[in-house]
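Hi support team,

I'm filing this because I wasn't sure whether my run with zinc ion finished correctly. The job status page said complete, but I'd like someone to confirm that the output block is well-formed before I use it downstream. Pasting the exact inputs I used:
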Amino acid sequence: MKEDQKSILSIDIGGTKMLGALITPDGAILRKVNVLTQAAEGPDAVIGRLTLLIDGFLGNSSGAAALSLAVAGPIDLKKGIITESPNLPGWQDVPLRSIIRDKYDLPVFLLNDAQSAALGENCFGAGIEVENLIFLTVSTGIGGGIIINNRLYTGASGSAGEIGHMVIDPGGPLCNCGNRGHYEAMASGTALAREAVKRLKEGAQSVLQESTGGSYGEITAKTVAEAAFSGDAFALDVISQTARYLGIGLANLVNIFNPELIIIGGGLSNLGTMLLEPAVEEIQARSFHLPASVVRVVTARLGADAGILGAAVFAHDCLMSGVK
Ligand SMILES: [Zn+2]
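And here is everything the job wrote out:
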């Protein structure tokens, strides 16, 4: 019971589902529940489902010491406000921390989901033995979290680590955020699929033509990956190009932060060496020798649990330092 009293109720609010879990200070997941977000219904409906999920845990005398919420998008940490969220339509300047705090007699913390995942990987996953690391989740977009001296770097307002919106090519493709040539518009799963479709429309030959029956709208990063794993030269080449753009961004990060480790999570990390090898070549070609000689690039270990585990670490650290 004593351990239970120190547990944190962590909830990762994603565009598709909300993952809630009760987590002990040493990272043991006591109970985990998934519900659909149904984000298209807007903030009020999602917050309604979120409180039902929380009620399900707290009504079971969970003994949680705090609630910790991880959400995509830039978060104003001091005010506890979600300023915008690419995965949650209609969420502009939503004061989620105070909304939830008003309903429950518990401290409530709010953090960006990729920052949470960075903390999770640092404390319990691939980055457990290093003090300086950068975590990237590469899937439909690119999220990031920066760990400096074993602490999450949050910046002046809380939004540090929005790596996906670093400019790679000023005249490049349009990003989800409305700007041009951002990293996630060039090196994410969405960018990979878009490049594949563009080349197929230009007449490139691939097993994807047969497997999709010419219906290129069905092509995703996953279908390109499947074609690559079957040895399709076209798919391998498109992945190599995306991996090189990924590496260009990593080279920038290596020069700026001199990390010991870069951890790649998200759906594209399933490509393994197909993604990492060209990316590492770009780091070696474009970064200074000193930081390039120490950095290792690895895939994440915690999968979908990274965010809830890191959110629990964040809340626990805040409680220990007297922040509520
Ligand atoms: Zn952007």
